[in-house]
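Example record

The entry below shows one chain as it appears in the dataset: sequence first, then structure tokens.
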Amino acid sequence: PKYNTYHCWNQHNSKQRLIAEYVFYAGYKLYFNWITLKVNFLLWFFPLLTYGFGEEGGWRGFALPQLQTKYSALLSTFILTFFWLGWHIPTFFYRYQLSGVMLVGFILGLFAGAILLTFLYNYTRGSLLAVSIWHFSFNLVSMIGTEAVVAGTMSTIIMILAVVIILKYGRKDLSPLLKTSVDFGNNNYQCTWPGR
């Protein structure tokens, strides 16, 4: 009798059964898509986060203030850009398809970005948080806007800002404040943060 009841329900309620199966399947798909989305987001977001915050500890947290103890802010930025370019070379093999003019544009954009980051670092008196947030934000916009128009527009704006910074604040400090330098060779870790 139970089989017959189920069998009758199955025949007479085929629409309800179809709806129930569809709801179950849709829920199943949504659940696993949600898990996949979370994993994909983490796989996308974690490197993005470490690029900005991880790199800046070395570039602006150590190298730039050391270089600025001996050289002008612009020359320090130029030297830093050379090493920063070397850091980015491996990404050319798996992320970018750069050749000729695009490679020159990338190098100029990297140098302009380094000038902007030096300005920000010196203007905030050595704030790693400020330069890390800027670097993270730039990477975020770059990753979201994969179209060439977005990258080209961002690079153009940054290059214009770099020229304005050089013309307005000069090569020595690249900022309205004096350059920030830290002498790690000295056991006292002397920091210079004077304003103008």
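Notes for this example: The first strand starts at residue 181 and ends at 183. The mean pLDDT is 76.
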